[in-house]
Amino acid sequence: MSVEFNASADLKLAVGKTIFQHIDGIAIGSTVAALRAHGLFDTLSNSDKPLDVRSLCEDFGCREGFLNVALRLLCHQGFAMVSVDVNSGQRHVCLTKDGIAWLDYLDYYDQIPALSALAEHYHQAFNGQAGKKAPKFVAPAIPADLRPSVIVNRVINHVYGEITAVVMTELYLAGVFGRAFQENKLFLSFDDIAPHGFPPSYIANIFETNGWAKSHPSGLTLTQAGILASEWASQYLYPVIYLPTFRKVPTLLFGKDRDSIFVCSSIVEKHLDRELDIKFSGMVFEKTCRQPFLDIVLPIFDREPIHSQPLSIVDMGSGDGTLLVELFKAIQKKTIRGRMLESYPLMLVGAEYTEVARRATTEALNRARIPNWRVVLGDIGNPTALAMTLNNVAVDPQNALHVSKSVIHNRRYKLPENLDRLTNFEPVSKTVYVSTDGSIIRPREFECNLVEFFEGWRDLTKKHGMVVIEAHTVDPELVYPKLGQNIVTCMDATHGYSCQYLTEYDTFLRAAQSAGYKSLAFRALSGKVLGKPTMTINHFMASKK
Predict the structure, then answer these.
(1) Less Cβ crowding at N or C end of the chain, within 10 Å?
(2) Which residues contact 169 (CB under 8 A, 6 or more apart)?
(3) Average pLDDT of the residues in 265-288
């Protein structure tokens, strides 16, 4: 139950725009502060022609891959324009008209590092991980007499983004909003808020600045905009997951010590809050993916004869186990196989690379009382090793339906092995791909790697195929006209700076087809706003040739 009122379409649009601009600010804040501190904006503003990005890297001592990520983010926001030659890898950058106007407000981003340190500390404190000494409390400083404009409003939301996100995330996770809505209340007591880290006056400042509440000595009275923002607070979880990555951006761009770059293939991950990421991924599956995923998978377990069905389901990147649990329950209740599980049992396997995720999957399967299951070590980029592991636990890897959610782009990059293909393959992707040493991966190399990735799974997917849920990026020219309605800037920031490999859907599909797959079923889970999907489901089947 939620606080009952009829929000107008205009109010929903306005609150959504504020939240998305906060998220944009988290995505670009540390980037803008770092580039400004090193004088790169001065060079761009003083040039009357596009500048070669490689030359900028040499002049400013940047890592080429990460600088290209930074510039792509500015393109998403409409502040810069980058021309790309996908064959040569040459890129040139210049500021746009909006970018030149935006330069007048760059100094407000100088406060981002201090605000970020405060935000990350209190997020860690909420999870019992912070040190004893808290950073000094600082409030975002915006002059009261600053004349409102479209750019000014965006800048204010950018500056307030990270601190707002952490406050909203912690209150959401602590159940403060949920309790208020259950009781149909507009009032948030400071007694309820104060135990979650920030002083009440700080939270009051954030809510009032955003127009979400009016403060009183004992608490906050939510406005209608505040009710909507509180109901939509889960939107902030995604950027908060990657606070450690955003704090590392200056080092990623300009650091001299290679050891200072966190290598994301490490078992001990330092670039994100993995526990929150696992929880958030399960929430996304429940809200966005569950029904279309079941629509694709359930018919497989209604096929006859029943012995032609998969003996097991292997979830590569099983996270918190939500996908496996929900799928098993649906099969059990809605399919022929579900009515014959005693005669034809179904084995569920969760495969995960990190210990924290394997533990989460194990707990979920135990809690749901799934009868037959295994949890194993698995790497999306190494299907051969996964097959050996499955054989060792008496699971036939070739008689399994392989499924995954948002893990293909999180594979470790490998140089393509097929040199003939590398010579002849015509790349189409304009996205930025970065190696873990900060160097840029050329589009041709990336696309060949993606083809070889799919080829590596062919032997395991000839019988039943693989059902993959994948996230994608889109070109900046689609993002900028829809600012305030999407989080693509943040997606490209988190994935680009942590060396993950989001690609355009067209590129993704072409690679699968080049590897000999066809899509038996397809769903676009997003795309109405941008015109291109940012999340899809495909049931890929490998040819038997």
Answers:
(1) C
(2) 123, 233, 236, 237, 240
(3) 81
Q: Is the dihedral of CA 406, 410, 414, 420 positive or negative?
A: positive
Q: With CA atoms as reference, report the closest residue to 66 among 492, 361, 530, 384.
A: 492
The answer to whether the CB of 465 falls within 8 A of the CB of 542 is: yes
And the tokens for 90? 């040459």
- Structure tokens given for 111: 């406060």
For the chain, the C-alpha Rg in angstroms (whole number) is 24
Q: How many CA atoms lie within 13 A of 458 on its CB side?
A: 19
Task: Give the separation between CA 535 and CA 242, rounded to whole angstroms.
Answer: 19
How does the average pLDDT of the chain come out, rounded?
91
Q: Which two tokens stand for residue 300?
A: 């497989």
Against a cut of 0.90, is the pTM above it? yes
Distances from the Cα of 492 to the Cα of 5, 235, 421, angstroms: 35, 16, 28
Closest to 395 (Cα-Cα) out of 455, 326, 310: 310
Distance of CA 308 to CAs 51, 302, 332, 387, Å?
59, 10, 17, 20
Cα–Cα distance for residue pair 139/162, rounded to 1 Å:
12
Q: What's the mean pLDDT in 410-421? A: 91
pLDDT surpasses 70 at 257: no
